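FAQ
Q: What does a multi-component entry look like?
A: The components come first, one per line:
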Amino acid sequence: MSLVFYAIAGLTLAGALAAVLLKNTVHCALALTVAFAGQALLFLELDAQFAGFAQILVYIGAVAVLVVFAILLTRGSETPKDGVYSRNWLAGLVIAAGVFAVLGWAVLGSARALPHETAAPTVTVLQIGNALMSRYVLPLEIVALLLTAALIGAVIVAMHEKEGHK
Amino acid sequence: MTPLAGYLLVAALLFSIGLAGALTRRNAILVLIGIELMLNAANLNLIAFWRYGPHPEALTGMMFAIFSIAVAAAEAAVGLGLVIQIHRHAHTTDLDQMNRMKG
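Then the predicted structure of the entire assembly, as tokens:
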């Protein structure tokens, strides 16, 4: 495990923690951007260049901006007076800790069976494009349909109803 | 510790942080942020298994992660559209105050 990995993992986890813990919603969105960027760096560290840049384009370029717009449209940056955490936050925390305990136990318990360092695969964007157009063409079409449906659905759901025309 | 175990542990931590955020925050947008973090953790697992798995040239895990990113983007768009519409209707994004299904 290299120092670079620890640095990037620390950045990602710090961003994620800040996104979940901060009181101001806009600060949460900015911390979320840091977490997404750290994750993109982790992808690059894993020799998945295409996935890393797709992560930057889609998550930082689209999802984070969408979250900021939603915060502005709902005036969500005002901190509510009765706290930012739900009434039953302790139960949620216990569930999350339990899930992490199970996942960590599973990973550490099977650590000996996990494969060791292998040679870095050389995957070009050309190969990915060829695979998308040949073997994975049907999933690609389905994702295209899903994105179109989500686009239309999001516009219809968020569209402003005219007064008196319900 | 093998590198794969390190990545899997980071992904498990990221998933748990996202789950804790989704379960403990009151603001609906923050719950969506938690769900995004959980999806990201799953993507990290997919890419890590692709990198250290037996046949990386088959691109299976990479394709899975790319499609998962696309689906997560669609989910975020529809989810935030729903939050905006609920705010317009109920004038709140506080999930503890959303206790009626009647409009």
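Q: Is there any commentary attached?
A: Sometimes. For this entry: Chain A is about 70% helix and 0% strand.
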